[in-house]
Design goal:
12% strand, three-stranded antiparallel β-sheet, mainly alpha, 52% helix, 8 strands
């Protein structure tokens, strides 16, 4: 990989915006064929500028001082270039300009911003969110090391930096993973970096937002869940191994309550209370992720699981409502459970929340607003990802359509049959009275009109 930098400095006069026959002098710096001009804030009469030798003509004291200023500017620009290179910072035309104009006089660098952000979210974000930001920060530091940079000034963050960072993530193979990151994972890391950089912009640590032209989107992903038959088979299966039986109970409890793994792990008897509705048991707790309160009436199967572990030695020691186990082990044992029960899907603990939202709640007519409240979502749009149409719902809706079509068809056929009968009666009546004279027809009509209608 090429690491050397070509660097050059030139002076030139801008005559297009000249006033009173004077032009503004600029220094043009060129790093790897990327040019950038810096105004030296000096004006000179157009006829006194030597464009070939890039200096003021003449040997007067004024000319000597002007040319000495150009030499000092050139030396300062070269020192800025050396300082960036020697300190392991990224050497760009923009970085040299920023250092030359003291735009980075406060010394704001990317690593300093990362440390500031970490301290800022330490007491405001959930543990999981903090951990996710740490992972993103790790990838940013790895990216800088790959670019052979110890750090980078915030003013050097630009659209090109973001593109290069995205390409780095797309090609990165995390340790222990069989393939590179997915598009959604890469987008999530870029999204976190954007939040960090936006903080710097709001703090006025940078003048421009490098993300102002950046656009990203997530690929739509179907979240797997267990069907009703799969959930019932799992809930009623008899496991000979205790650890599998306990993890199954945790999964089923989550499937019938929508409570996440981390929140289940923290449940104690204090979180159970009896409502006014005929002794109905409720779970009341706060979501660790969003700190939002959730109150859930217990369905029969979830309540049976709580009774199972009410005086269990495992919960007596831990003081929790249900057995405690690490998330990693729970997901590992779920693979064994799926194989034993015959579930072909990639069973993970988080699938229990998807199962509750889709199979238990929405498919049984629960309004999406209620599901959102139970799941502890702060936005209903988060819940809408679960509002998928299931096969049995499609069949039910199609059966209803067929029923309405059948009713319309029977009505149409009945109306056609009635119209046909009327037509036959009219034809028969014509034949019946066709032999009568005019006087006889008038007499017959008078008889019909004089008949009183049947009250029955």
């Amino acid at each position: 990989m090429r690491t050397s930098k070509t660097f050059s400095i030139q002076f030139w006069m801008d005559t297009k915006k000249s006033k009173k026959s004077e032009g503004l002098i600029y220094a043009r710096i060129n790093v790897d064929q990327k040019r950038l001009s810096i105004s030296l804030k000096r004006k000179l009469a157009i006829e006194q500028w030597d464009s070939k030798n890039q200096k003021q003509l003449g040997a007067s004291q004024i000319a000597k001082e002007f040319n000495r200023y150009l030499d000092l500017s050139k030396s300062k620009l070269f020192r800025c270039y050396q300082e960036l290179r020697d300190n392991g910072n990224e050497v760009t035309s923009k970085a040299i300009k920023s250092l030359f104009l003291n735009e980075d006089s406060n010394g704001y660098k990317l690593l300093e911003l990362l440390n500031y952000h970490s301290l800022k979210i330490e007491n405001t974000h959930a543990i999981g969110s903090i951990r996710n930001f740490k992972v993103t920060e790790g990838y940013i530091i790895r990216f800088l090391k790959k670019k052979k940079l110890a750090d980078i000034s915030l003013s050097s963050l630009n659209f090109e930096f973001l593109c290069n960072f995205e390409n780095y993530l797309n090609a990165y193979y995390p340790k222990g993973h069989p393939k590179a990151m997915s598009h959604n994972t890469v987008t999530k890391h870029i999204q976190r970096l954007r939040k960090i950089v936006t903080l710097a912009y709001n703090l006025e640590w940078i003048k421009d937002d490098p993300f102002r032209r950046w656009k990203s989107s997530f690929d739509k992903v179907d979240r797997e869940f267990l069907s009703n038959s799969e959930l019932l088979n799992l809930a009623t299966h008899h496991f000979m191994i205790d650890r599998l039986d306990r993890v199954r109970d945790l999964f089923v409890f989550s499937s019938y309550t929508g409570i996440s793994y981390v929140d289940i792990k923290n449940l104690t008897k204090k979180n159970v209370w009896i409502g006014d509705d005929e002794g109905q048991k409720w779970i009341s707790t706060y979501r660790q992720k969003t700190n939002s309160k959730i109150k859930i009436p217990l369905l029969f199967r979830a309540e049976q699981i709580l009774k199972k572990y009410d005086s269990h030695p495992v919960t007596e020691i831990s003081g929790t409502l249900l057995p405690s186990i690490t998330n990693e082990k729970a997901n590992l044992y779920l693979k064994e459970i799926a194989a034993e029960v015959g579930i072909k899907k990639n069973l993970t603990f988080h699938m229990a929340r998807h199962t509750f939202a889709t199979t238990v709640a929405l498919s049984n007519g629960m309004p999406i607003e209620t599901v959102s409240k139970i799941l502890g979502h702060t936005k209903i749009t988060t819940t809408q990802i679960y509002a998928r149409v299931m096969d049995h719902k499609i069949k039910s809706d199609m059966d209803a359509v067929q029923k309405r079509l059948d009713e319309k068809a029977r009505k149409f056929e009945g109306e056609n049959e009635l119209k046909h009968l009327r037509k036959k009666i009219v034809e028969a009546e014509k034949n019946k009275y066709s032999h009568l004279t005019k006087e006889q027809l008038i007499e017959k009509l008078n008889e019909v009109l004089s008949e009183k209608p049947d009250k029955n």
